[in-house]
Design goal:
Blueprint lengths: L1 H18 L19 E11 L7 E12 L7 E12 L2 E15 L2 E11 L5 H4 L5 E7 L7 E4 L20 E11 L3
Antiparallel strand pairs: 1-2, 1-8, 2-3, 3-4, 4-5, 5-6, 6-7, 7-8
């Protein structure tokens, strides 16, 4: 009974967080150390992407971390990312709580659940609460970075799978990312 009550309270708190207006900046939780004997990975930075509509601006900010044990999937991931899309001078953004960071060489995939949006954002009505989205990154040493965005699944459709995102196809035109792969 207590387990069900606590779960219901947690769900209500998360729904309230999505519905409540949020500050313009995303608080970054304190860094959580990796468990002893595990490898650590991180991806941090902010960049504007080469978006095909010149009058609009898309930015992705990320502060993601993961701890790895044996195998290729993390045993724990944490952090935040924000997807921002400026249309007609208005910034439409969504904040996500990281549930997976995978890395390999100069690439990384981050997925997370939507926890906050800008006031009046269409995601508040068009998406299920806590929809998962994915972002992929290609961060070559000395080269141009690229980012790929999954988009969100419509109401009633299955959620994007944890740790999955599309190919990094949009070029970074301003800003940078720093990637530390686990292995």
């Amino acid at each position: 009974m207590l387990k069900h009550t606590l779960r219901a309270a947690a769900v209500l708190a998360l729904v309230a967080a999505v519905a409540a207006p949020a500050a313009a900046s995303t608080p970054v939780p304190p860094e959580t150390p990796a468990p002893p004997g595990s490898a650590a990975a991180s991806l941090q930075g902010t960049a504007r992407l080469g978006y095909p509509v010149a009058e609009e601006e898309v930015r992705v900010s990320v502060d993601a971390h993961a701890a790895y044990g044996p195998g290729s999937f993390p045993v724990r991931s944490w952090g935040t990312f924000r997807i921002s899309h400026v249309v007609d001078g208005r910034d439409h953004w969504g904040d996500f709580e990281v549930d997976c960071l995978t890395t390999g060489g100069p690439t990384a995939t981050v997925t997370g659940r939507l926890v906050r949006t800008s006031p009046g954002h269409v995601w508040r009505t068009e998406l299920e609460p806590h929809t998962r989205m994915g972002v992929s990154f290609h961060v070559p040493p000395g080269g141009t970075a690229r980012v790929g965005l999954s988009g969100a699944t419509a109401k009633g459709e299955p959620l994007l799978t944890r740790c999955m995102a599309p190919a990094a196809d949009m070029e970074v035109v301003d800003g940078r990312y720093s990637l530390r792969a686990a292995r």
